[in-house]
Every structure is written in C-alpha cells, then in structure tokens.
Amino acid sequence: MKIVSVIGARPQFVKAAPVSRLLRQRHEEVLVHTGQHYDDAMSASFFRDLDLPPPDRDLGVGSGTHAIQTADMLRRLEPLLREEAPDAVLVYGDTNSTLAGALAAAKLVDAAGQRPWLAHVEAGLRSFNPAMPEERNRIVADHLSDLLLAPTPAAMANLAREGLAERATMVGDVMVDAFMAASSRADDFLPPIAKGRPFLLLTLHRPSNVDDPARLGAWLDAVAEQAASVLFPVHPRTRAVLDRAQVAIPASVTPLEPVGYLAMVALEHAARVIATDSGGVQKEAYLAGVPCVTLRAETEWIETLEAGWNRLCSEPSDAPAAITAADAVDRSAPRPPLFGDGHAAERIVEALERLTAGRAAALVAS
Predict the structure, then answer these.
(1) What is the DSSP letter of 44?
(2) Which of 84, 164, 280, 322 is an S-S bond match for 11, by CB 3.0 to 4.6 Å?
(3) pLDDT in tens, 72-117
(4) Which strands, in side-by-side order, build the sheet including 88-92?
(5) 206-237 residue pLDDT tens
(6) Could you tell me which of 52, 55, 45, 40 has the C-alpha nearest to residue 262?
(7) What is the CATH number that goes with domain 187-327?
(8) Cα angle at 19 between 277 and 128, to 5 degrees?
(9) Residues forming the active site
C-alpha cells in the first residue's frame, strides 16, 4: 500500500507522528508538507520533538489569504499526486492543508478511471460555527472522504446525522498516542522560567481573537487581572499584531517565543490553569489533568465541557470569573478516557489496510 500523507500545521505534525511510524513499518508512505507552518518554531522543531521523519516533499507554500494559500497548495499537490500515483491520500484535521489535500485527491482520476481513495483523520468534529474557516474545511473533507476516522462517539454521531455513518469508524484520538509518548520525556524540556512557581498558560492565535489589536489587548488585560503570573508562548500571527499595533503587554504576562512540542507538553503539565483558543491545547489540557478556559463561544471538544474540565469564555470581560472557576476545579476528580486509550494509530492503519484490501478484492471481482 502506498499512501501520500498531507500535513502542514503544528496540530497535524502531532497527529501524523504515531501514524507515520506505523505506516512506514508496514507500507510505503510519502509525507508531504505543504509549508503552511514553515518557520522552525512552528515546523522543524516539531518534527524533531516528535521523531517524525523529514517530509519527503515540501511544497513551500507559506502564508497568504485562505483563497491564495489553498489555491497554491492545490496547484502544487495535483502534479505531485499524479507523479506518486498513491493508493490513498491521508489528510488530518481542519486546516487549509486538509482542504487542499482532500480536493486534490477527490479530483484526481487516472487513465483507467481510478482515483486514490481519501481518508480523513479527526473526522466528524463540529463547532457548529459556520463563520470558522476550520468548520468549512472539515465538513468538505468529511463529505469527500471514502474513510472517516472519527476520534469520539460525538464525532460519530455528527457523521451519522450527515448521512456519512457507512464510511465512518471510531478509532480514538491519535493525539492521545502522541501526548502519552511525549509526557514520558517532557520534564527535561520545561522552560526555566516556568520552574518553581504557579502560572497560567495562555495561547491565542485565532483571527477572531488576535487580528483586532483592541480585542487582543483586552484578552491580555483580562487574563492578567486574574493571574499573578502568565506565560504566553506567542504565535507568529499574534506576534505580528502585537508588534504592528504596539499592543501593551501587562507586567504579569511574560511573552515567550513559540515552543516545541515537548516544551509545550511540559508547560501544560506544569500550569495551574490553561486559557486558550486552540482546539488541540484544550484537549491536551484535559489529558494533562489541568483545568482549561476556552477563549471562544464554542468548542469541538464538547466532552471536556461535560466532564467539567473545560469552560467557554467568549468575551474578555468574562475571563476573570471563568479563570477563577477553572482554578477551583478539583484536580483529583476522575477524568474518563474520553479520547481513547493511546492506540488510535494502530486502528487507523488497520482501517486503511481493510479499505485497501476491500478495494483490491472488488477490482479483481470486476
């Protein structure tokens, strides 16, 4: 079996690492990096931390509007897929790289009228916010895919409501596989500034929170109001707004350069509370047993809300109360294994193998 795996952003590197290791033991994988995240802090360092092999192909797309970035990815992916002629294309998550990989695979037909089948890892997630570009990306990818690899029962239910149940299988969340492996060796990567003191860990990167300098400043002020020490790894998009608009950073907020995956896992384990607008960090907070405040009006990970370890906060004025409530969570409270048992990568590869075998049998029969 030959598979082209398309990745391009930090969360996809995390998800792809356990799957790629297994695929390469049993099959041929061509790992394609679109270049959506391209600097060392957001890309190369994650490959190193995750023991992910260097990409076989790097499209070097870089930044741009959604339309420009996606179009450039499509323009470079199509000839690559024709050249590689894979049995399957594997996409992850909900970024522009996901959308471009799904579209390129769905439109690719060879001289015999065959196309590679398409599989989507993390299928079925829904925020039910149509204004989020990620929501559009994941819906399109799901409806184009031949195999939907869902992380949770809630994701399976979403797919069933959309008439996609026959294509779906629940495998668990592959980020659990990666997080468990990283947690066992992350202590040595904790930044020195985080040692020996309680702190709140803050991440902000979504356009709705950071593109307006006034709103970004309001988030920083609100978080600082409730926490004596805030560590703030700054995403490149957020850094650009801070620098361009000269947004004031409160004294209790310490901005950090973007950190690698192992350092981020160490920070998550060490934090007393996490405040974030990242989908992945919400889930990592749950896995680390750290209460989380999600700085959005909705989340794809509704299970973390129901379990009491996460709460939504859509406006800066509500952040102090939300952080206070999060800080009061009993950390000894049980955390059900909402996202699986750390063996999702094995189930993903097995599902890919079953689909390939089924297609081969059907071709022979015809």
Answers:
(1) I
(2) 280
(3) 999 999 999 999 999 999 999 999 999 999 999 999 987 677 889 9
(4) 57-58, 28-33, 2-7, 88-92, 117-121, 147-150, 168-170
(5) 999 999 999 999 999 999 998 889 999 999 88
(6) 45
(7) 3.40.50.2000
(8) 35
(9) 205
